[in-house]
Amino acid sequence: MLVYDAILLLTLVIYFAIWGIYLRHRAASILHPVSLYLLFHGIVFTFRPFLARFYDFSALYQQFGFQPSISDKVTVLLAANLGLVTFVAVSLFVAREPLSFPRDKYDDVHRRMLRKPFLLVAAMLTPIALASLAEHWAMRALGNTSMITDLSTGIAINTTGNGWFFTAQLVLVPIVVIFAWLYRFQLWSLIPFGIFFVLRAGTGGRGPLIVAAFAIVVLYLTEQRRRWPEWRSGLVMLFVAVVFTTVVSDRGAKVRELLTSEQAEEAVAYMDTAPFETMDFANQEFFEYIVYAVPQRTGTYDYFLSNLQIFTEPVPRAWWPEKPIGPPIQLFSLFDYGSPLGMTLSLPGAGWYEMGWAGVIIQCAMFALLYSLLYRWMIARREDDWSLMTYAVMIAATTITFRDGVLITIARSLPFYLGPIVMMWLLARAFSVPSSELIRKFALEKGAAAPSGKAVGGTHRSPAERRRMMIEQAATKGSTA
After folding, report:
1. Are 164 and 92 found together in one domain?
2. What confidence tier does 264 reach under pLDDT thresholds 50, 70, 90?
3. Residue 377: inside a domain, yes or no?
4. Is 145 left (phi over 0), alpha (psi -120 to 50) or beta?
């Protein structure tokens, strides 16, 4: 174990060294992809391994039915650090520009003009999302579900229901986040977020809660022109952490009992575990299982074939009864070597699953490139309303995607997290809502002197005339803001 302990200390040194280098970089901020990955890696691959060593974690080994060798454990730490270095290097090479917070009064005018399209989108989607959420409540409280677990793969299958409806509740994430942002984070604007938080907590699910809370923090910090959280943002994150721990302990049973007259069945308690030994933080053990199996026992890697599931996943099983369970092409099953039920791969773990050491570099570089290009796009767009909303939701979702480590996680959530934003954009175009750039340009050309309420043409106006009238009015409001 001396070698393993030495690698543990090396991991700690590497982690703090990278933080030191990163904090000196001009692009460093809590909104940068590197910050989110450093937080993820620090919890599951830097500090938790010390707890695992001190408390001699064994619960997951017993549950999965395997025991990693010292070589497996050392491989995991080295591969995780290789993934960290790769992710940071690619991200800082691609997303090297700092946040400049260029938003001005014309962006604020445009944001106010988006309230009408947003409220229409929210009115259309919220009833469907609440119905989906109610189905989750019934599933948890009464045990009624159309989902079964395939014992050969550990994958949950929707046998009779529609997976799109089952997941529709996720649209509440961008809805509550954008509502708070459009109304400038006044206390009453956080009420929808609070309602969603309670209702979602009652289902026992934690991921969307964390995504929504962090997305609000991202938008609030840009509003305040801050690169790092201040005390208000810190309180929000602390509150989420406390609720996360509570929800983990009973999967939402206390919340359901508090809001309904029906008594929930006694929650199944976790086995007697040490601090942070639960599956929610166990990416280290999950990665050890992958190294234990691939390719030592499977004889091969996956070679990125699992990504083919992106093409089969959108089709409901009710329409395609013979749809493959999981990826359409599978070279092996991890369930042939143990019982890894509920396992998530993590970003470096997924890379090892695909192609070993080379796979770790490819997978981490691919995700780093994805989020770094998204960051660069937001910077290039002057952090306008559309790029800002998109980036806030997408970067907040890394709290889940880094843990899962696979593209299918992004593909599953993308229609629900970005769908409301796309619908808002289409309605804004239909209503001839001018962009903030057009409002700014018109104000500069006219000296922001357009008379308020100036009429254009007669009763029937063309889209171009309506747009020009809206620009004039918006420019006037911007000049007096």
Report:
1. no
2. very low
3. no
4. beta
Tokens representing 320 are 């395609």
Do 247 and 357 reside in the same domain of the chain?
A: no
3-class DSSP assignment, residue 272: coil
Indicate if 73 and 49 belong to the same structural domain: yes
| Residue 293: domain span | 2-99+283-307+326-367
List, in order, residues 6 or more apart from 142 with CB less than 8 Å away: none
* 325 Cβ contact list (under 8 Å, min separation 6): 150, 152, 153, 155, 157
What global pTM score does this model have?
A: 0.87
Co-location of 214 and 331 in the same domain: no
Judge if 10 and 40 occupy the same domain.
Answer: yes
240 close to 210: Cβ distance less than 8 angstroms: yes
* 111 and 228 fall within a common domain: yes
What pLDDT score does 364 carry?
98
**Judging by DSSP bridges, how do beta strands 156-158 and 147-149 pair with one another?**
antiparallel
Cβ atoms 345, 330 nearer than 8 A: no
CA distances from 29 to 382, 386, 478 (A): 17, 21, 30
* Dihedral, CA of residue 40, residue 297, residue 334 and residue 77, to nearest 10: -10
